[in-house]
């Protein structure tokens, strides 16, 4: 399922995800499910509730008055609504207290619903009841469900602990929030994606497109040290065809590993292939940048593009890349058509 896990984690906290409700969190908090870092574990760290876990852990279930055991659940609001392609249920470090089975459901609720309104929505099963092992990252492919979802519900049967829930997929932005406005055409939350990259040794290039400011250099894109001639690059597929008027190139936190210079190129994939070197047009000539700072450049804004390539000379990293501009008329139409296709 490598293709799915390469897609953005729509649920992760750094993209705005939140665990809005859970049946129980007696031993470890539900919010840990969507922490961006890998699960950690320190043995023999006992608190008032027992061994401390970097995950979500419920109490041991007992049959109720009706004799039924029931199961535990947690509802996650996706930071970026979209089409779900894969789910990872990670029981890292849970060995004698993991749930033996789990399933995942998804729903779509417009606006800003309360937990009760989400719980009452129409849910669709995207991962059927499946066996789990302890201390294991379980990858599940989600196929045949071409719908935009806003929330997921992790069901564990009957109880236990899960370290992380990852929900990978394609972002589907709400066109009502984008059309007619100047927007960041490269932003992940608007549907931008890095589709090719020369080197992502230290951190993924999609990090450049995350919302907010990078808190450290790991939250941006950073390459290995280049030992041969040339330079590193990344290609961004814009949210939709548009005209870029302002570029922001941010090297914050990159004090000794920022690139010496950058270049921006644009291409309209409606008229040429990404592999056609002659089709790329210069948007920003090779320009010196400084470490640990934000750089803003006005661009000519004289052509529609669907993709942008950022070249960093010779290597290094970028904290954020912002490409502000306007959607082309057919760009607005494409976003609206996709929205209606996946929400109706």
Descriptive account of the structure:
This protein has three helices and 21 strands. The strands form five sheets. Strands 12, 13, 15, 16, 17, 18, 19 and 21 form an eight-stranded antiparallel beta sheet that branches. Strands 1, 5, 6, 7, 8, 9 and 11 form a seven-stranded antiparallel beta sheet that branches. A two-stranded antiparallel ribbon has the order 2-3. Helices cover 7% and strands 40% of the residues. The mean pLDDT is 95. It has two domains: 2-171, Sandwich (Jelly Rolls), CATH 2.60.120; 175-330, Galactose-binding domain-like (Jelly Rolls). It is globular. The chain starts with a helix and ends with a helix. By secondary structure, the protein is mostly beta strands.
SSE arrangement:
Layout: H1 2-5, E1 18-22, E2 46-47, E3 50-51, E4 56-57, E5 72-90, E6 101-107, H2 115-119, E7 124-131, E8 137-141, E9 149-157, E10 161-162, E11 164-171, E12 182-184, E13 193-197, E14 221-222, E15 232-250, E16 261-267, E17 281-288, E18 294-298, E19 305-313, E20 317-318, E21 320-327, H3 329-343
InterPro entries: Allantoicase (IPR005164), Allantoicase_dom (IPR015908), Galactose-bd-like_sf (IPR008979)
Catalytic activity: allantoate + H2O = (S)-ureidoglycolate + urea
Pfam families: Allantoicase
Give the C-level CATH assignment of the largest domain.
Mainly Beta
Major pleated sheet: 8 strands, antiparallel
Q: How many individual β-strands?
A: 21
Which architecture of the largest domain per CATH?
Sandwich
- The assigned structural class equals mainly beta
Q: Could you tell me the strand content as a percent range?
A: 35-45%
What's the tally of helices? 3
Approximately how much helix is present in the residues?
under 10%
Query: What is the CATH topology of the largest domain?
Result: Jelly Rolls
Q: CA-to-CA gap between the ends?
A: 28 Å
C-alpha Rg, in Å? Answer: 22 Å
Secondary-structure element series: HEEEEEEHEEEEEEEEEEEEEEEH
- CATH-level-4 superfamily name of the largest domain: Galactose-binding domain-like
Shape: globular
Number of domains: 2
Stretches with pLDDT under 50, minimum 5 residues: none
Global mean pLDDT: 95
Pfam families: Allantoicase
Organism: Actinomadura keratinilytica
Catalytic activity: allantoate + H2O = (S)-ureidoglycolate + urea
Keywords: Hydrolase, Purine metabolism
């Amino acid at each position: 399922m490598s293709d799915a896990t390469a897609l953005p984690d729509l649920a992760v906290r750094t993209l705005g995800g939140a665990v809005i409700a859970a049946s129980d969190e007696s031993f470890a908090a539900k919010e840990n499910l969507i922490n961006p870092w890998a699960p950690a574990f320190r043995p023999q760290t006992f608190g008032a509730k027992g061994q401390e876990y970097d995950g979500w852990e419920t109490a041991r279930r007992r049959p109720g008055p009706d004799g039924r055991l029931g199961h535990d659940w947690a509802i996650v609001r996706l930071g970026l609504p979209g089409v779900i392609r894969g789910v990872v249920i990670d029981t890292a470090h849970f060995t004698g207290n993991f749930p033996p089975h789990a399933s995942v459901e998804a729903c779509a609720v417009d606006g800003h619903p309360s937990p009760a309104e989400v719980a009452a929505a129409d849910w669709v099963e995207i991962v059927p009841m499946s066996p789990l092992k302890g201390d294991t990252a379980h990858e599940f492919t989600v196929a045949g469900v071409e719908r935009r979802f806003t929330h997921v519900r992790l069901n564990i049967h009957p109880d236990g602990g899960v370290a992380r829930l990852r929900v990978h997929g394609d972002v589907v932005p709400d066109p009502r929030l984008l059309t007619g406005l100047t927007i960041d055409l490269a932003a992940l939350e608007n549907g931008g994606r890095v589709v090719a990259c020369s080197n992502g040794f230290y951190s993924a290039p999609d990090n450049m497109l995350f919302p907010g400011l990078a808190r450290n250099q790991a939250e941006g894109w950073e390459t290995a040290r280049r030992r041969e001639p040339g330079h590193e690059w990344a290609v961004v597929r814009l949210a939709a065809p548009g005209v870029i008027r302002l570029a922001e190139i941010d090297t914050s936190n990159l004090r000794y590993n920022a690139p010496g210079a950058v270049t921006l190129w644009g291409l309209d994939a409606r008229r040429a292939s990404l592999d056609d070197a002659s089709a790329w047009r210069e948007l920003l000539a090779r320009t010196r940048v400084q470490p640990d700072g934000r750089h803003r450049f006005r661009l000519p804004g004289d052509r529609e593009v669907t993709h942008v390539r950022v070249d960093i000379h010779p290597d290094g990293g970028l904290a954020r890349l912002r490409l502000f501009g306007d959607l082309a008329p057919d760009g607005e139409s494409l976003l609206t058509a996709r929205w209606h296709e996946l929400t109706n």
